[in-house]
Amino acid sequence: MENLCQLCSSLGYLLLRSAEKFPTRTAVIYQGKSISYACLQQMANSLAAFLKEQGIGPGERVGLSCPNSPLFIVAYMGILQVGASVVPINLLLSPEEVVYILNDAEVKAVIYWSAAGVNMATLKDRIPSLNCLLVAGASGEKGLFSVEEVIGRPCPPVKIPSLNQVKDVAAILYTSGTTGQPKGAMLTHRNLLFNVNSIVNTLPLRQEDIFVAVLPLFHAFGATACMLVPLALGATIVALPRFSPEEVARTIKNVRATVFMGVPSMYFLLSQIPGEQRPDFSSLRFCISGGAPLPIEVMEKFEKQYGVLIYEGDGPTECSPVTAVNPVGGRRKPGSIGLPISGVEMKIVDETGKELPDGQIGEIIVRGENVMKGYLHREEETRQSFFGEYFRTGDLGYRDQDGYFFIVDRKKDMIIVNGLNVYPRMVEEVLYRHPAVAEAAVVGHPHPLHGEVPRAVLVLKPGMVVSRAEIIRFCRQYLGRHEVPVIVEFVSQLPKTPTGKILKKDLRKH
Hints:
- The chain is an alpha/beta fold and 510 residues long.
């Protein structure tokens, strides 16, 4: 594909360009209904025209609270086409968290789905900057505009404002806030266009591809890889509002999907579908895993069951987000996040920012035009997040002699036992090898003598029973004495984000 940064002066042109090139192609399939590129653009244009009438334009911010659906894509692109910035809202957040984000971003309008997430109408008085609410799925409510009515009215084409790709912000994505309040990562039009371009140049994608979008589109991975990339290609997006292994399996079979992108917990649950109900995944060309470390046991079981290879990759929200992936069709290294994608540079450094030789563990840092402008209203935290032009990911890892990167853990998750480093992911990989263990998370637990000790929290497979002592004996076969969990707990489920990442901060509280 030609350079998107040159073809599109801003991200708002992405859908418009594909609608002009492929007007009759199917852009989105949702609940069995197909929407063409021309129709999708027409709805986005109507929304942009409405926002413009409300005085919203460049420099303004619009909140978006919506499950995966054509509406999310229409709203996202409509906001961009009027020159404003999108502020996607995690549907699982509490009202207090939503109020904080909307106030921090100083949104002028919010587009939301009445049946999912927080009822924005009840929060309006707590957000001084908010003067316009658009709701989908509800009618006749006083003071609210109907999204269905807005996008259904015919409008002449709205002229997309002239923007500065490098400086103007397309989206503000709030990080999960592992410490303190969440931070708004400001991603510019250049950041996102560059990352989409890099992904298209790195993966063997086609215009004919059919993407299953079950990763939340309010999340960086879902938005870039499952929405912006297929829109740039003129490919088809199959939008699923929530993850159910049976529904995903049915969808892949029925639409003959060719690309599936998910997080490790999705692959784990898909691999648990009983053999007699095993779905047909023969249409899939490949799968991509990101968002969290992919246990090798999970990868091997899924691939053996379905005959489709998973290529692991990675990238933080602040990098738009994809930074690395194992080469599809090339050499894969299980446990590795692969090689930097086109146009992205990665290094391993020590605490001072000095580059380390291959094989040594340090912090992974990233440079490229995909790296965020900074955190909204947080100049000092932005400054601390960089070594010069390189963004500090907070991931600890190493690069091997072939240039492949391996993440051993998050810097903040590392456990220090008697001054020795213990990397929870290494302990978790061992735990996943135990036949009774379905899911595992390892965190540090305060200890008066050793400083910290490893604490393992496990979910067992259905019908399996195992003792704490047996788990500890098993770990001793493969781990050093300081790495073996001292505390072992069994739970029915682990706390997770909407994308399936285990919330270790919640486990540390207990």
